[in-house]
Structure to design on (251 residues):
């Protein structure tokens, strides 16, 4: 039985993409005189495109901050990148929604600003973890638990706290604190050091094959892919579960 379990956060313990989609839809539904479904899809696409034009794009890609996270992250912190993102965020949010409105022939800066603010409210209203995370309490009785997640430190810690899962973890590792992200093996080694575990005495559980599984394996850690949304496995050698309910049998 492994001494330590390392868990990813987004779409492993807490829904991420489904919550983002729901927040886009709820925000778009508040806009008058538009095709809300089209606006929601358009805002997401434009956010992705505008995000990649930012001066900090390479940094965000490295530590794993997505465009939809940029729409509600407060970018707290004193690093040059966080300060730059904090300064740029209002314009980024404006452009994402303004361009989506323009697709429907609307030139309304005030509405775009309002939608940019509304998205953060709608996204923060969604915080419930997956139901099977109730297993974490029992797992912690037998293993040391570490969270290993990519993203801005302030936002990932906010998600963790709002989900009610923070109390289950002996250590929390966020790429934004380190300046590097998964799949870099150094991220996993840092997590192992915090829970005093050797690589061969730990298991990583995550939803992303490249970042979670391959990154962990590169660090010498056994990995389990959690496939919550029924995706086609990219290769045959993966140890796969659909729910955390299946995890104890593999440990």
């Amino acid at each position: 039985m492994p001494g330590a379990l390392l868990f990813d956060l987004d779409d492993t313990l807490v829904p991420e993409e489904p919550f983002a989609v729901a927040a886009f839809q709820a925000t778009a539904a508040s806009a008058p005189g538009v095709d809300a479904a089209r606006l929601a899809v358009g805002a997401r696409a434009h956010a992705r495109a505008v995000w990649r034009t930012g001066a900090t794009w390479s940094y965000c890609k490295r530590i794993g901050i997505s465009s939809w996270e940029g729409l509600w992250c407060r970018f707290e912190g004193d690093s040059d990148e966080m300060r730059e993102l904090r300064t740029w965020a209002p314009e980024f949010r404006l452009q994402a929604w303004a361009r989506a409105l323009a697709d429907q022939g609307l030139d309304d800066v005030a509405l775009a600003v309002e939608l940019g603010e509304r998205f953060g409210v709608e996204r923060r209203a969604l915080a419930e973890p997956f139901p099977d995370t109730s297993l974490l309490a029992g797992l912690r009785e037998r293993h040391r638990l570490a969270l290993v997640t990519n993203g801005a430190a302030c936002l990932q810690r906010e998600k963790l706290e709002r989900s009610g899962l923070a109390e289950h973890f002996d250590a929390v590792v966020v790429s934004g604190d380190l300046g590097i992200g998964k799949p870099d093996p150094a991220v996993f080694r840092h997590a192992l050091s915090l829970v005093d575990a050797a690589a061969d005495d730990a298991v990583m559980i995550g939803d992303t094959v490249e970042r979670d599984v391959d990154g962990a394996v590169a660090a010498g850690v056994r990995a389990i892919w959690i496939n919550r949304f029924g995706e086609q496995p990219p290769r045959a050698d993966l140890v796969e579960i659909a729910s955390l309910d299946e995890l104890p049998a593999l440990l």
Q: What stands out?
A: The beta strands are 4-7, 144-149, 171-174, 202-206, 222-226, 240-241. Residues 9 and 149 are 6 Å apart (CA to CA). The domain at 4-15+128-250 is CATH 3.40.50.1000 (Rossmann fold). The first helix runs from residue 17 to 29.
